Amino acid sequence: MAVIDASGVRYSYPDGTLAVDGVDVTVEAGERVALLGPNGAGKSTLLQLLGGLLDPDAGTVRYFGETTDADTVRDRLSVLTQNPADYLFNPTVREDLAYGPNQLALTEDEVDRRVERIADRLDLDGLLSKPPFRLSGGQQRRAALASALTVEPEVLLLDEPLSNVDAANRATILELLDELADDGATLVISTPDTELVPQVADRVILLDAAGEIAAVGPTRQLLTDTALLADCRLRPPQVVRLFESRFDRPPLTVAEAADRLDER
Q: What is the CATH code for 2-76+153-263?
């Protein structure tokens, strides 16, 4: 089932600059999809259009095969933009994490359970009583992600979710995204980072520098097409660059490269 089906979507910025022109995107339930492209390619704009935070000038975005009104499915769909401040507007982190569940008419015990569970998972326990503006950039990003997850969405759209996150918490977030996918959640992640994509996506929607869709396909197929990535002003993952002359199918990750070398 298509959880997001965008057809002929067009959008221009207030100054008249065309950002997205006639884009067609379909995301199936349970997929892990990356919106990959260089900076300035319109990834963030496209993600917000798919998530219903922006209304297209033309075309439609349909959700769960049922509606074009994203507001009616906010309990099933969460969007995390690049700016954590968009999600952290209450006096404390705890109140921010509870805000979404409180809109769902859940019991107080259930709201508390969700807040405590996700706070523990993202190492926010000691920060729940703090004002969000007193958190570091990485802490704010984790708190914003937690606020998107406490509604337990079926579909999660994330714009560069690992920006400003240190190595330890980066690993925690990646593990959490894997768990969500294993539980059946649909993930759409916008990033310019080809190193990240193999860890978070099975399929890639590749945007070129002009903001047009250059290709759509399996992660391995697109990330090992070094000529296509160069045309889109992107560098292939480092491990692909290192091993493309040694293997017909170069590895995508360091762990995969080690396995392939052991086999030899």
A: 3.40.50.300
